[in-house]
Amino acid sequence: MKYVKPYMGLVKQQLADDIITEQGLLLLSKGHILTEEDIKAIIIRQIDRIAIEETRTSINEYMNHLQKMDPEFYQLYDTCLTTVEDLFQSASRQERIEQDTLFEIFDDLMSHMVSVPHLFIQLRTIKDIDHYTMQHSINVGIISALLARLMGLKGDEVIRIGHAGFLHDIGKALIPSSILQKPIVLTDVEFETVKKHPRLGYEILVKNEIKDPLVLTAALMHHERLNGKGYPLKKDGTNIPLVAQIVAIADVYDAISSERVYKKSFSPFHAYMELHQIAFQGELNAAIVLNFLQYISKLMEGQEVIMNDGQKATVILADPSEPHRPLVSMSGQFIDLRKERNRYIQELLIPMKYET
Ligand SMILES: [Fe+2]
Predict the structure, then answer these.
(1) What is the whole-number distance in angstroms between the Cα of residue 196 and the centre of ligand 1?
(2) How many angstroms separate the alpha carbon of residue 146 from the centre of ligand 1?
(3) Per-residue pLDDT tens for 135-156?
């Protein structure tokens, strides 16, 4: 156990001792997993130190652990980030994009992710607000390739769809960062400016003689929606090519699960629920989304999680129709989250199994 001053970063940590108020009342018991509400209650009562277990690994600690365990991934991700930064800078100055080495590092990163599939679930936790668009490009590339593979596509096509995801937002290089990084809701005029990025991206790629039609299509059409409510072309249904549908899902998923200047990140499970909802509202391809959620849920079976009420549970079995609402075991009872709609999984408690 260790004693720490209460702060919001202790969410999901386990209490190593009871917390007693000045009035002698029991506020929280030993073994309880702290939620945001608990920590607010502790801070309001001016309790200056609490005991927490040291043995339990939070996701952030896991990422530090991964950094040591998988330096290759971190090295590749870091180098890839530098490549994307250079790419966006060249594009913003209307300079020529260096194509020869453009995909080299990204392809290495993609192959690494294929051999360690659990890694992509943790992508959101290495986000850095200042580099959002660059990290988003890498993540959308990786997730797009994974979605393509899950849809049964093979070899070269998977790689090309990865490239399509990687370059989908290149048009944002020409949108002022004062708009992209604005911490509050955009005005209508600003939003109209942002909506220019698909066409701008397409033009940048054409000017640089990037000819792969999958890459060009994704840049132009990743904001089209199946119900026709997207932009810039307002295409609908099967008029939207598969690559644009795949990149759209990767884009939405990464955006939902990421920390932005105007919002905190959602847990992966919250992101799955959102994605499921958006797909079934008719915006995204529900078959691809279900494939994606089923794949993730299979990885989750047997993992310990924290529920939205702060209690611990174990994922037992995911149902194919609502894979983000699996059967869980909690305090010796089985709970079907498809039926208990007020409960949901808040966060992974113990890191995903790590096998290379
Ligand atoms: Fe975009």
Answers:
(1) 9
(2) 19
(3) 889 989 999 999 999 999 988 9
